[in-house]
Amino acid sequence: MTPVRPLAPARRFGFRAVRYAALAVSVVVLAVGLGGCASLRTKYERPTVALPQAYSQASQSTAPIPDAWWKLFGDPHLDALIDEAFAANQDLAAAAARVEEARALAGFARAEQFPEIDAGGMASRTRFSNASGQFPPGIPLEFDSFRVTASVSYEFDFWGRYRRATDAARAELLATEEGRKNVRLALAADVATAWFDLLSFDHQLGIARETLGTRGESVRLQDARYDAGTISELDLAQAQSEVASTEATIPALTRAIRQTENRLTVLLGRFGGTIERPGSTLETSTLPDVPAGLPSQLLARRPDLVAAEQRLIAADARIGIARAAYFPSISLTGYAGSESTDLADLFGSGTGIWQAALGVLQPIWNAGRTRRQVEAASAREKQAEAAYQKAIQTAFAEVEDALVARSTGVLEREARTRQVEALSRARNLADIRYDAGESSYFEVLDAQRSQFVAQLNWAQARRDELVAAVALFKALGGGWEEPVSAEPVAEVAPTP
To answer: Are residues 312 and 233 in contact, defined by beta-carbon separation less than 8 angstroms?
Structure first.
């Protein structure tokens, strides 16, 4: 009978390798199965928000609003300034950089779902003591060692921790992108507001200079009359007082113009300088119409609301990340390579080395740290939901404020126009009555003063009318080329 010989070392090694490989494949299959059924991924549900069905102030226009809504004001100089701001504003540049950062972090979170493969090498020389007694005679106590390996490590995402982290990072990326859009929208609105402020101050300064010239001529006339003895010194002093009062408004308006130009240069990314505005006036600016629409449809276009909801989605995903800490983490690590005491034999026969390891770590007791992490993540989600609800409420209020400012601004400007026309007639009549000796000079001064104030008030009312339109476009989230058909920002529950 032929005796059974034991397996050669190479054959035993081969069977062990097959066995470990089969075990690794089984673990991978189990991981895929468990990952599909045991994931902590939950379905996000948008919060319900009770909004009125319509705004209290509704426009009758149905024309679409272009994305470049500022072009509706009909001022090419304003268009050029906003284009310049988009190209050079530092806040917008910082917002774009934040988007790039968020995109990189989202890619990093996604990469956590894949194995990590590394390659390494080592060369060393070792010397042992003769007196240690660890080695028998004839064994060299000084030798070289060379090693080259490739290693792999992978943690199975059974419970969806890395997938939820990817969801959170993706939502943060979307929120950051919407944040950049919001910065762009606010920048256009700020430039337009500063521009209309500048035109208003220009108009008021023109009125002040014209009035100063008229009153200066009146003072010269009154001075001649005083020398002739036809008027009292009181009339002359009153005329001189009105001239000084008008003169005082000019430096104040000049200062306001310069400060507004400085404000604009910062928005434009410039280092100082003046703002050219040939041919642009308050009268040449067009007041655009605004289309009507349901609150949920209009508010859905606001980038800050989209960003707030994405932050809520990210907070919801992070609850799943925290819950995954309750469950075991299972990881697979291994390496393969070659090791030799002679560099020339590093890849020779019999120098191969390898190791495969399957690790399981199950939390047993950590003094409630995991539970507290889940509670904290849940609390942060509630905070994000409250912020989202508050953002919707604020947005609705801003649209309402802008609508009422838009409608009442038109009425105020029209009333100021009628006031200026009436006071202009009153001043002419006062001059005629004074020249005819039917009234005192106080009546003339009062008419001049009232006309001057009314003209300044008209410029302010016209500015407020235009700025209210800017605020409305900003509150609506900009413009849109097509009829509004966006998905509502919330499930709208009509209020009684």
So the answer is: no
